[in-house]
Amino acid sequence: MAITGANRHDSMLVEPILDGLSPVKGRGRGRPRRRPVKLHADKAYDNRRVRRYLRRRGITARIARIGVDSSERLGRHRWVVERTISWLLAFRRLAIRYDRSATTITAVATLAITVICARRLPRKDY
């Protein structure tokens, strides 16, 4: 999660977000993965800097190209992102920014993510 101003372009956050990923322990043996296998992105991320960074990290890029590809083809993958943003914006404090300090917004966003994850856990009836 990264908190920035509304006037900041999304593609500027690709590197800090991917560099900050913690290792993911997959199935089986071996070292945990430090990078995703593939990145799906819309046309906003179609620039040389992002593509060069992904290629250097060994991440397969599936980015719609401006003026060439349709964003429709990313629909099923993009739906997951849009649904998650919708869940976050259900918390009014995040949808309407009452607070101006990054510390408060980060705390509220972290709390919202924790609540969303807790709701997704299967319930155990005792």
Spatial shape: globular
- Overall structural class, as computed from helix and strand content, comes to mainly alpha
Low-confidence stretches: none
Largest sheet: 2 strands, parallel
As a whole number of angstroms, the C-alpha radius of gyration is 17 Å
The average pLDDT is 82
Number of helical stretches of at least 4 residues: 5
Query: Within the largest sheet, what's the order of strands?
Result: 1-2
The percent of residues in helical segments reads 40-55%
Q: How much beta, percentage-wise?
A: 5-15%
Q: Report the order of strands and helices.
A: HEHEHHH
Number of β-strand runs: 2
Distance between the termini: 35 Å
Walkthrough of the structure:
With 126 residues, this protein is mostly helical. The protein is 43% helix and 6% strand. It contains 5 helices and 2 strands. The termini are far apart. The mean pLDDT is 82.
List keywords for this structure.
126 residues; mainly alpha; 5 helices
Set out the fold topology:
Blueprint: H1 14-19, E1 38-41, H2 48-57, E2 60-63, H3 75-89, H4 92-95, H5 102-120
Parallel strand pairs: 1-2
Report a brief summary of the structure:
The chain is mainly alpha-helical.
